[in-house]
Specification:
Layout lengths: L6 H27 L2 E2 L12 E2 L33 H28 L13 H13 L14 H24 L2 H6 L1 H6 L2 H29 L2 H10 L7 H28 L1 H19 L7 H4 L24 H8 L7 E4 L7 E3 L1 H6 L2 E9 L5 E10 H6 L10 E9 L11 E7 H4 L4 E7 L2 E2 L9 E4 L11 E7 L12 H5 L9
């Protein structure tokens, strides 16, 4: 047995192959939900540097929602495919967690056993040698087997770049797209060029990783396969076992590809079941990795008026006559007849607040970047009343009240089982409502909130993605258990798009 190819190395290599496929396919599913890439944070029409759709965006805000831009991927390509970004995000989270754990094991053992020396160059001679190898490959020849000890110079540079540059950058830019990171460490996100800069860099790194995998797997079978495959499969430098190793390698790749596709069809066969499983296995990582991050007042100072976006996307259209004549009546009265119902108090106490009542409460104002789970972003100056100040008008928190439910005059865009659309709602836990950036906003950029963005009042919960932030707010109430409402997942987007209750990533 060749000690340079121990079992742990071959096992982590195979696990990495399985997990990187899950990451790439779920990442493509997420990209298909908003097939455009920007460098500017306002995600404005016409500013895309790359798009995978022929649709042109209208310049006017509020007439075209981001869900209208969503594309459908085949389950053979995306995980799971067919416009299921919620499940795609869950698979991406699970794949990322396992991929990072596998990577940590690999790197620790790599340095612990001294095998890092065959991957990381220790001499400047590596560059001219790598150039010679590249010239040979471009000329459709290959270096002799003596150049592989066990890798040639070009392979060493490639492995070093992928393992110690591309992979860490993918992790760092991925973190920069999480709302919890953005609100706790906004300067870190600005370092990457904001949310869209991090998203674009992440995409470029994905392309590099994909091309590397295609070339890597191809060259394994093309360049001295009689030595490569026995080492990869058996850990043995034994060309006589090439046929056996080739068969096992090809069978393994086939099985892994079928496994990737099976995950798509298993998810689509019963989407609520898939969501329950994926949330259960990914939530511990969310809590450990991001649950402790609480935004502070000082963090908000990283953004200013120069960061304000010229264009702001939206999801969902304002309520229509069929959906809410009450809201339209309030709009016609310039919101004088609008009332916010605050309920769930002790002994069933409740009250109704006018917009003027809300404005009598202490005003909170801050700059924040809104991000949608589809990928767009927009920075604004938000102003309004803290949610806790509104709830305090009812008195102390009722015993057994563990959540706050915010309901909209608007309806869900689509229900998961295509039943009649129901009122849009979102539920926040106690830790979230205590955060500084959880307000009922009635102003944006020091002006009354626009109709298409939720007028007269919308919820802001800055440590979460936008699907938690209800527009056209109708009511706020204490509840004991969100499983009693809707489909019991904690919000309309959790019910209909199978997002996670925890919207921090």
């Amino acid at each position: 047995m060749d000690p340079d190819f121990p079992l742990w190395l071959r096992a982590t290599h195979l696990i990495n192959f399985v997990l990187i496929g899950i990451l790439l396919r779920s990442g493509w599913e997420m990209l298909s939900s908003l097939p455009r890439l920007w460098w500017s944070n306002d995600s404005a029409p016409g500013k895309e540097w790359l798009r995978f759709t022929k649709r042109k965006l209208p310049k006017e805000e509020g007439v075209y929602t981001s869900l209208m831009d969503e594309r459908s991927l085949s389950p053979l390509i995306g995980l799971p495919g067919r416009k299921n970004i919620g499940l795609g995000r869950h698979w991406h989270g699970l794949g990322t967690t396992l991929w990072m754990l596998n990577g940590i094991v690999y790197v620790v053992l790599l340095f612990g056993t001294g095998l890092w020396r065959r991957i990381i160059p220790t001499s400047w001679d590596i560059f001219p040698q790598a150039w010679d190898s590249l010239v040979m490959y471009l000329g459709f020849t290959k270096p002799s087997v003596e150049h592989f000890q066990p890798y040639d110079a070009l392979q060493m540079l490639g492995y070093t770049f992928i393992i110690f540059v591309v992979a860490p950058l993918m992790i760092l830019t991925g973190l920069a797209m999480a709302p919890a990171i953005r609100n706790r460490f906004p300067r870190y996100v600005k370092f990457w060029g904001g949310h869209q800069g991090a998203r674009s860099i992440h995409f470029i790194l994905m392309v590099i990783m994909t091309l590397f995998i295609v070339m890597h797997v191809s060259l394994v079978f093309i360049v001295h396969a009689e030595y490569n495959l026995p080492r990869m499969i058996f850990g043995a430098n034994d060309p006589e076992r090439y046929a056996q190793a080739f068969t096992i390698a090809l069978a393994t790749i086939t099985i892994v590809i079928f496994f990737w596709i099976f995950l798509s069809y298993w998810s689509l066969a019963d989407r609520p079941r898939a969501q329950r499983f994926l949330v259960k296995v990914t939530e511990p990582a969310r809590k450990i990795g991001l649950g402790w991050m609480k935004p502070t007042v000082e963090d908000a100072k990283a953004l200013g008026k120069d960061d304000v976006s010229e264009f702001h996307w939206t999801n969902g259209l304002p309520p229509t006559e069929d959906e809410s004549p009450e809201w339209l009546e309030a709009k016609a009265s310039n919101w004088e007849s609008w009332r916010l119902h605050v309920g769930g108090g002790a002994d069933g106490e409740s009250l109704d607040l006018s917009l003027d009542d809300l404005k009598q409460l202490p005003k909170v104002e801050y700059y924040a970047t809104h991000t949608c789970m589809q990928g767009w972003s927009g920075t604004s100056l938000w102003g309004g009343a803290r949610l806790t100040d509104v709830l305090d008008l009812l008195g102390p928190r009722p015993q057994g009240a563990n959540y706050v439910m915010v309901e909209s005059y608007g309806l869900a865009q689509e229900m998961i089982d295509h039943r009649p659309r129901e009122p849009f709602y979102s539920v926040l836990d106690l830790d979230t409502i205590e955060e500084q950036g959880v307000i009922l906003a009635y102003e944006r950029n020091s002006k009354p909130l626009e109709v298409h963005l939720g007028a007269p009042v919308r919820l802001r919960a800055e440590s979460n993605h936008g699907y938690k932030m209800v527009k056209w707010v109708k009511s706020v109430q204490w509840i004991d258990d969100y499983s009693k409402y809707g489909d019991g997942r904690g919000g309309t987007r959790e019910d209909s798009a199978l997002q996670a209750f925890n919207g921090r990533i």
